[in-house]
């Protein structure tokens, strides 16, 4: 049994490209970065904490499967070593997109897989680069009114209308969206879940 520790529809859609059946069990955690915490350490810690929170939530179930694998992920937009979270207001969104305008930033996506006991746990972090064209303040305001950037890290969605700002990417597109498919398939195989085998069987 595979459990996705995320409420993200994007991660659910991406994982469904690799495995036919899984359960979604999101768990709320405190996503505040620690003081002076490097972005890479932060995203790795977030994925691990999401996985552990899902394990604890699952253990409260009476109907438990004996063999369960939990998968969690975290994505952060980083510019000048600073993590850009989700915008709290239009002004916040303006500040983020102005910082990203006309330059290259990093998107870090971590992945954590663990079993029910926590004895087998693996993590990985994928670093990607995204280059934006110059964005005008008028475009930023128009984009905000679409509603898309309001719950997105860095105030944009590369898989949506935010793609009009993206000049180029270097790395994994699926990781930037929220789940690195190559690395996910590699780690799932370590837990005995083989994507090609799973998806080719009726």
UniProtKB/TrEMBL annotation:
SUPFAM superfamilies linked to this entry: ITPase-like (SSF52972)
Name the major location.
Answer: cytoplasm
Task: Please give the Gene3D superfamilies that the UniProt record associates with this protein.
Answer: 3.90.950.10
Compartments it resides in: Cytoplasm
BP GO annotations: nucleotide metabolic process
Q: Name one Pfam family in it.
A: Maf
The entry's active site is: 74 (proton acceptor)
Catalysis performed (reactions): UTP + H2O = UMP + diphosphate + H(+); dTTP + H2O = dTMP + diphosphate + H(+)
Query: Which UniProt keyword terms apply here?
Result: Cytoplasm, Hydrolase, Nucleotide metabolism
- Enzyme class, spelled out: hydrolase
The answer on whether this UniProt entry bears the keyword Hydrolase reads: yes
Its needed co-factors are:
a divalent metal cation
Recorded GO MF terms:
nucleoside triphosphate diphosphatase activity
Q: Where is this site: Important for substrate specificity?
A: 10, 75, 159
User: Which InterPro entries does UniProt cross-reference here?
Assistant: ITPase-like_fam (IPR029001), Maf-like (IPR003697)
The entry's cellular-component GO terms read: cytoplasm
The answer to keyword Translocase applying to this record is no
EC number of the protein = 3.6.1.9
Per the entry, what this protein does is: Nucleoside triphosphate pyrophosphatase that hydrolyzes dTTP and UTP. May have a dual role in cell division arrest and in preventing the incorporation of modified nucleotides into cellular nucleic acids.
Stated family: Belongs to the Maf family. YhdE subfamily.
What HAMAP family does the record point to?
Answer: Maf
> What's this protein's name?
dTTP/UTP pyrophosphatase
> What does the record give as the organism's lineage?
Bacteria, Pseudomonadati, Pseudomonadota, Gammaproteobacteria, Oceanospirillales
């Amino acid at each position: 049994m595979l459990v996705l520790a995320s409420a993200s529809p994007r991660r659910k859609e991406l994982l469904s490209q690799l495995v036919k059946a899984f359960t979604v069990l999101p768990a709320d955690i405190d996503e505040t970065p620690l003081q002076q915490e490097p972005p890479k350490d932060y995203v790795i810690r977030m994925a691990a904490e999401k996985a552990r929170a899902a394990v604890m939530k699952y253990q409260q179930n009476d109907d438990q499967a004996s063999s369960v694998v939990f998968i969690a992920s975290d994505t952060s937009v980083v510019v000048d070593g600073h993590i850009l979270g989700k915008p709290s207001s239009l002004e916040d969104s303006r500040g983020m997109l102005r910082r990203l305008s006309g330059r290259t930033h990093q998107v870090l996506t971590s992945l954590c897989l663990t079993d029910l006991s926590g004895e087998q746990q693996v993590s990985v972090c994928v670093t990607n680069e995204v280059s934006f064209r110059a964005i005008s303040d008028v475009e930023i305001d128009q984009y905000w009114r679409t509603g898309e950037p309001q719950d997105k890290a860095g105030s944009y969605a590369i898989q949506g209308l935010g793609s009009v700002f993206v000049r180029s990417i270097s790395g994994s597109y699926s990781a930037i969206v929220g789940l690195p498919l190559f690395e996910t398939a590699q780690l799932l195989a370590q837990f005995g879940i083989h994507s090609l085998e799973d998806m080719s069987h009726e």
